[in-house]
Design a protein that fits this description.
Mean pLDDT of chain C: 84
Order of helices and strands of chain A: EEEHEEHHEHHHEHEHEEHHEE
Low-confidence stretches of chain C: none
Radius of gyration of chain A: 19 Å
Structural class of chain C: mainly alpha
Oligomer: heterotrimer
Helix content of chain C: over 70%
Radius of gyration of chain C: 23 Å
Bound molecules: adenosine-5'-triphosphate, magnesium ion
Largest interface: B-C, 68 and 71 residues
Mean pLDDT of chain A: 88
Structural class of chain A: alpha/beta
Shape of chain C: flat
Low-confidence stretches of chain A: none
Number of strands of chain C: 0
Helix content of chain A: 25-40%
Largest sheet of chain C: none
Order of helices and strands of chain C: HHHHHHH
Number of domains of chain C: 2
Chains: A alpha/beta, B mainly alpha, C mainly alpha
Chain lengths: 258, 215, 192
């Protein structure tokens, strides 16, 4: 479904991705790991056709994707944007309608679904925002906004769902709900996170970006999580002191801070 | 609308600086009086907002796009003095740090956009808001675009009259105001409509946002 | 402690500011094309290693104005028999030299170091500029989000609506930033 070959990206002198090769098949659940600044968000934006890689090629369903092509080929853009949904790391940048209801119905209306309103109500129910339909999106709490943005994507029935730190700001019940949702969704899902404890829940395959913005691991999540050396290379372990009985120890940890 | 350096005669820009400097001083004094210790953070934040607004481009159907000025909105949200100071500060950063826009023309631009634009927008809004708030806001945004354009048009247009060489040839900007005024004002009268709608919707959205903050 | 290098550079920057201010005023007082050309060459030579790039940048900034004004005036003057050659030569030279001077100043001289006699000014410029970079990125995010959620080019209504909402969000953010900043400064014993 997705084919990246030698994708690199640079923002005005700031390297974000270096030579990334990646293939993802339909229906896979992938978790994208990496430290802050490794290039996770950039990679997801490339996959959403929003950022043109400085070099390398991106194919979706065999079609080469570039922002230029999406601008020129309207019919293709319509299909691509309908099938591929990106949850931005900062979910609030996705919200611009006057009410929660309009926000969820925006996509279905734009794509001319006959049952836009019904779908909007359905998804509002599923993400637990049914009582807030008339509130302005910006007035919601962080976690609520995250769920609203998610509903805006899911209401279109995407085939490829790109989630940039989807659990950010979610409380434990909402996190659990999201994990279940991703597992049950028929779509291909790529979620980024730096919370190791969630990695195994968000997908079965891990793709890891290193500090040098290169792909340093691609394989089963469990295998990656058992391999301390690899996690250390990725910079995903941390080190701090703590007590074992009377003795003060200092060693690497793989647990989360949260 | 940034007029580059070299089109305005020293007499013009010196006069503009002569007017602007005391007004900046008055503005800062007033702000200090109102905000006390929070003057600087406040000014910095509004300036950054002003900068973002000036970068904002609205794609129009047909492939072209226009830049907002955001001055109507700033004046309506935060008052004309803050708006004036913020615009001046952004113009200074743009010309001295980023190297776009003029330095000699800085005072002219600050007076036209910052002072006159803000006050016209604020005044127009105050005048009409009791009649019809949305109209008042659209009008404010429109005025904030058109009034500075008219001022810039006239300033450019008087150059051939105030700065002439020995044979009466223009030394700086060569067209007089019969040409510059319509050339600058007509397009801005159209852009002003977009600006007006943004001012109206922007303020409405802001009010909705404020309501939930309980303010 | 500030290093010797810093204070030497600061001196250079202040000198740069003064030279720049004088240069700008000077170029608007001189009307002889020969002197204007000399000034242009002087600025260009003084621009340092990057002079090629800086010249291109200055031209990109000045050309749209110069072309419109020159072509327009050229036609009008030709029709009504006004002097053309020297007027346009002078105008183009003057605008070109000034824009180049400003571009060179902006890249070669650090305004922050030049004005660091006033901590208030430095703080203000730093605040504004760091916020600008941050918000520029956020603005881009808002734009991309709208693109990714639309089937094609969003219509004007949607664009205006999305802009108005995003702008309101920025305005709100500006307020919150100002408030936090003031509190942070207060907590560090400043501002009082
Ligand atoms: N718009 C931009 N302009 C310039 N540089 C950028 C931009 N966006 C990202 N970068 C840079 O690209 C690199 C990768 O950024 P990216 O946001 O993709 O990282 P990330 O893995 O998502 O990090 P995080 O965990 O903090 O979200 C960083 O060094 C970042 O500073
Ligand atoms: Mg990220």
């Amino acid at each position: 479904m997705i084919e990246l070959t030698g994708v690199s990206h640079c923002f005005r002198g700031q390297t974000a991705l270096v030579g990334v090769d990646l293939r993802v098949r339909e229906g896979e659940k992938v978790v994208l790991l990496g430290v802050n600044g490794a290039g996770k968000s950039t990679l997801l934006k490339v996959l959403a056709g929003l950022v043109a890689p400085s070099s390398g090629e991106y194919r979706y369903e065999g079609e080469v994707i570039t922002p230029e092509r999406l601008r020129r080929d309207r019919a293709f853009a319509r299909r691509f944007r309908g099938e591929v949904g990106l949850l931005f790391q900062n979910a609030e940048v996705m919200l611009f309608n006057p009410t929660v209801f309009d926000e969820i119905a925006f996509g279905p209306r734009q794509w001319g679904f006959a049952d836009a309103e019904e779908r909007a109500y359905q998804w509002a129910e599923r993400v637990g925002l049914r009582e807030m339909m008339d509130r302005p999106p910006f007035s919601l709490s962080g976690g609520e906004r995250q769920r609203l943005a998610l509903a805006c994507l899911l209401v279109l029935g995407p085939r490829l769902l790109l989630l940039d730190e989807p659990t950010r700001g979610l409380d434990p019940p909402a996190t659990g709900w999201l994990v279940e949702l991703i597992a049950d969704l028929p779509a291909t899902v790529i979620s980024s996170t730096h919370r190791l404890s969630l990695a195994a829940e968000l997908g079965e395959r891990a793709v890891v970006l290193g500090r040098d913005h290169r792909l340093i691991y691609d394989g089963p999540v469990e295998e990656f999580l058992e391999n301390r050396d690899q996690m250390a290379t990725a910079g995903l372990l941390h080190c701090h002191r703590h007590r074992h009985g009377e003795v003060l120890h200092r060693h690497l940890h793989g647990h989360d801070w949260e | 609308m940034h007029v580059p350096d070299g089109f305005l005669s020293p007499a013009t820009y010196m006069t503009a600086y002569g007017l602007a400097v005391p007004l900046w001083w008055v503005g800062v004094r007033r702000l200090r009086h109102e905000l006390d210790a929070e003057t600087l953070p406040w000014l910095a934040a509004v300036s950054a907002l002003c900068f973002v607004l000036m970068q904002w481009s609205i794609p129009l159907p047909g492939g072209s796009s226009v830049h907002l000025s955001g001055i109507g909105l700033l004046a309506v949200l935060f008052g004309p003095w803050v708006s004036f100071l913020a615009v001046s500060l952004v113009l200074a950063v743009q010309s001295l740090v980023l190297g776009v826009g003029g330095v000699t023309t800085l005072a002219v631009n600050a007076l036209a956009m910052g002072l006159i634009g803000s006050w016209m927008a604020f005044g127009g809004w105050r005048l009409l808001r009791r009649v019809h708030e949305p109209t008042a806001l659209v009008f404010a945004g429109w005025l904030a675009t058109v009034a500075p354009a008219a001022v810039v048009g006239v300033t450019l247009g008087v150059q051939p009259l105030v700065a002439q060489g020995e044979e009466g040839e223009p030394l700086f900007f060569p067209f007089d105001w019969e040409v510059t005024l319509p050339a600058v004002v007509v397009p801005h009268a159209l852009l002003g409509v977009v600006e007006g709608v943004v001012t109206w919707w922007g303020r409405s959205a802001w009010v909705r946002l404020r309501v939930r903050h309980g303010e | 402690m500030e290093s010797r290098g810093w204070s030497r550079r600061r001196l250079g920057d202040r000198l740069g500011l003064v030279v720049y201010g004088g240069g700008v005023v000077g170029v608007t007082l001189v009307h002889d094309p020969v002197w204007l050309t000399a000034a242009g060459v002087g600025v260009w030579l003084g621009a340092g290693k990057e002079r090629g790039r800086l010249l291109r940048r200055a031209l990109r900034l000045a050309l749209p104005w110069l072309v419109v004004v020159s072509v327009g005036y050229g036609m009008v003057a030709f029709w009504s028999g006004l002097p053309v050659g020297e007027v346009l030569l002078r105008l183009n030279l003057r605008v070109g030299v000034l824009v180049l001077l400003t571009v060179v100043f902006a890249t070669r001289v650090s305004l922050l170091r030049a004005v660091d006699f006033s901590p208030t000014l430095v703080w203000l410029f730093t605040m504004v500029m760091s916020q600008m970079v941050l918000w520029q990125r956020l603005y881009e995010e808002f734009r991309l989000a709208l693109v990714s959620r639309s089937p094609g080019e969003p219509d004007l209504r949607t664009v205006l609506q999305a802009s108005a909402n995003a702008i309101a969000w920025f305005a709100d953010q500006a307020l919150a930033t100002a408030r936090n900043q003031a509190q942070a400064l207060r907590a560090r014993g400043l501002l009082e």
